[in-house]
Write a sequence for this structure.
């Protein structure tokens, strides 16, 4: 199983990484909400252990973004808040479990394994199809109409971000935060350069484009009109 631990407190993050690794899990870590969301958009995780009070973007916001984009990674909230309304909010937003700090590590492991037995939500997203684009998310492999697209990691992240929200215009700021996990100076053209490189690989040689610019707003991926 692949686990993402999103926790800003250094000692807790290291403790969870070491402990889960020793249990045989593959573990990635994020220290803020933006980094966590970027990893969850780019990779397939079985479970995310998500602290509620994260800097940059809190756990509630991370989960809202995931579910809005139909990313079904199972989420266990970690929080020091033990109010009923907080637990209810977590479940209403699409969380799968809720563990209050301080907690027993053995209980966390048991809850992770229990989620796995329910049927891994993440497995539903291992294949993504948008028009002629076919994603194998485990292999980071993309084809358009049978042609393999050779993408850099950043190009792949951007294309996957757009493909998970087809027909929706994404702003340059949102793209920068999602692909790089940080905010960029709005005066830089790093997003535009990346989109330009990606457009060459996605659309060149095909009769109709899929990657579109909405002037003054951002970029979108859409299926060509039949």
């Amino acid at each position: 199983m692949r686990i993402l631990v999103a926790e800003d407190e250094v000692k807790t993050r290291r403790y969870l990484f070491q402990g889960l690794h020793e249990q045989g899990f593959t573990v990635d870590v994020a220290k803020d909400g933006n980094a966590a969301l970027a990893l969850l958009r780019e990779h397939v995780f079985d479970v995310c252990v998500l602290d509620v009070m994260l800097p940059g973007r809190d756990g509630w916001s991370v989960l809202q973004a995931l579910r809005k984009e139909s990313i079904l990674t199972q989420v266990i909230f970690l929080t020091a808040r033990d109010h009923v309304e907080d637990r209810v909010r977590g479940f209403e937003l699409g969380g799968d479990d809720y563990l209050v700090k301080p907690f027993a590590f053995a209980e966390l492991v048991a809850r992770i394994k229990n989620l796995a037995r329910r049927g891994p939500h993440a497995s539903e997203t291992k294949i993504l199809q948008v028009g002629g684009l076919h994603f194998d998310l485990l292999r980071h492999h993309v084809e358009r109409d049978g042609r393999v697209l050779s993408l850099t990691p950043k190009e792949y992240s951007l294309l996957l971000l757009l493909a998970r929200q087809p027909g929706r215009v994404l702003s340059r700021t949102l793209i920068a935060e999602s692909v790089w996990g940080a905010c960029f100076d709005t005066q830089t053209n790093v997003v535009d350069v990346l989109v330009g490189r990606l457009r060459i690989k996605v659309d060149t040689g095909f009769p109709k484009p899929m990657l579109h610019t909405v002037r003054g707003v951002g970029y979108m991926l859409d299926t060509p009109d039949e």
Notes: Residues 37 and 65 are 8 Å apart (CA to CA).
